[in-house]
Amino acid sequence: MAKRRRTRRRRGPNDIGTAGDLTRKVLERYNVSSGVHAHQLITDWEEIVGPRVAARTTPVNAGAAMSEGVLTVRVANSAWLHELSFIKEQLVMRINEYVGTKDNKQPIREIRFYHGRAPKGRNDELSQAKAQQHREPLRKRPLPPPAQGDDLAKIQDETAFVEDEELRQTIIEARRLLDK
User: Fold this and answer.
1) Which residue intervals of the chain bear CATH 3.30.300?
2) Which residues, in sequence order, are bridge partners of residue 72?
3) Which single residue of 12, 100, 102, 176 could bond 96 by disulfide (Cβ 3.0 to 4.6 Å)?
4) At 91, is the pLDDT very low, low, confident or very high (cuts 50, 70, 90)?
């Protein structure tokens, strides 16, 4: 039996290539590839940086970052801001591996962290939902029964030095309801 010789198909001027090549060309032609990568950066943030970091951070200016090269990231607290400053270069590498393209392998050159609360409104629902997944639910504890008898007498003795009658009664009532 004769061996069949493989021939490589030559690409002609009308050959569109792979689906990925076609998609890339269309996105670049309509100048929306950076917007798609910015959206990908936001929606896949947890996959890019990991669940622990993603639960405490949110990329803020992903669209501008893809063109300017500087990504701003909001951090939940100052301890995490400090921690992330040590791994900044590794995060830049991870992000660029994820959203980099053939033409621009390193769209993000720098990350700037800032401490801040998430803004109220629709834009932050995604980050709040992802952060909520990693928090333990709060345990509701029942209030202790109100103080009575000897416990109430002890509270009244301890608050006797308060001269303002209204303030003293407020303190007694609060302690009566909350003390064990």
Assistant:
1) 26-133
2) 112
3) 100
4) very high
pTM of the model: 0.51
Biggest CA-to-CA distance, the chain: 112
Q: Per mean pLDDT, which range of 23-27, 52-56, 113-117 is the poorest?
A: 23-27
Q: Which helix (H) or strand (E) holds 70?
A: strand 70-75
CATH of 26-133, one of 2.30.29, 2.40.50, 3.30.300, 2.60.40: 3.30.300
**What does the angle CA 131 – CA 41 – CA 24 come to, to the nearest 5 degrees?**
155
Collapsing DSSP states into helix, strand and coil, what is residue 74? strand
CB atoms within 10 A of CB 82: 12
Rounded to the nearest integer, the mean pLDDT of the chain is 76
Residue with tokens 């970091």: 53
Burial 121-154 (b: 16+ CB within 10 A, else e): eeeeeebeebbeeeeeeeeeeeeeeebeeeeeee
Identify the pLDDT of residue 66.
67
Helix (H, G, I), strand (E, B) or coil at 32: coil
Residues 6+ apart with CB under 8 A from 81: 75, 113, 114, 115
